[in-house]
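User: For this week's homework, look closely at the record that follows, marking any run of repeated tokens, and judge whether sequence predicts the tokens.
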Amino acid sequence: MSHDLGFWILQALNALQLSMLLFLLSIGLTVIFGLMHFVNLAHGSLYALGAYFAASLAAIGGYWLGFFLAPVAVAGVGMLLYSGLIKRMRKSGPMAQVLVTFGLIFALLDLTRIFWGDLALGIAVPDVFQGRTAFLGVEYPTYRLFIIALGIAVLATLGFVLRRTQIGAMIRAGVDNDVMAACLGINVERLFFIVFCVGCALAGLAGAVAAPLLSVTPDMGLQILIPTLIVIVIGGLGSLKGAIAGSLIYGCVQTFGAVLAPQLASVLIYALLAAVLVIKPVGLFPAKG
């Protein structure tokens, strides 16, 4: 199989775009798990809600209204979930958390069907990102380049906050040892709440930016859940480095696997997942705690 350099650049950009979308979704879930020790399988449903909120708001005021307000709306849903359910389930053990949040997936799925129906919705790409842009000698959709740039910007922002600010130091302390952090005077409960809401907002942001590329359907949260969990398991729980590493690995394996070994493309990522679980069960870059 021979392809020119432009073909491989396109595949690399496709892999990077998929990776950045998965990163936006996985970083919130992995930090929530790392800090709160809470297994939230309904995180994908919040991604779907973000897409639906964005579609509804875009129909009223255009793409950018949905882009900016959908994460806020999903964070609001996260606040309700935390106050009414998550806070009570934190000490109940992983099995109960898995069962409750798994049931929450279907509750949110039915709620989206009640409010928006079963028909797929769509969002038009904003005018500023219409068409294609010359990049590294190839023509690539401008909106996909925007997703890549957004993912890199979120990565840089989170990296700065976690490593250079006081709240980042408190989050890292809570991930490493939440009991000791509480003994040092850190309000761990408030920290849990902030991190959970930010994680929900990032899931909503991922849904908003994915909506113009994908059909907005009630089951899109279920479709993204398995890739997100694979990213987290490969990368390691609770760390920014693990989230981006797992996302890049998943994007590259899926994209280049479909080109180099199409017959095996559907099983390559699961083979890699199994290898990581055997060789390093905690993932490649887990948080210290």
Remarks:
- Strands lie at 132-135, 138-141.
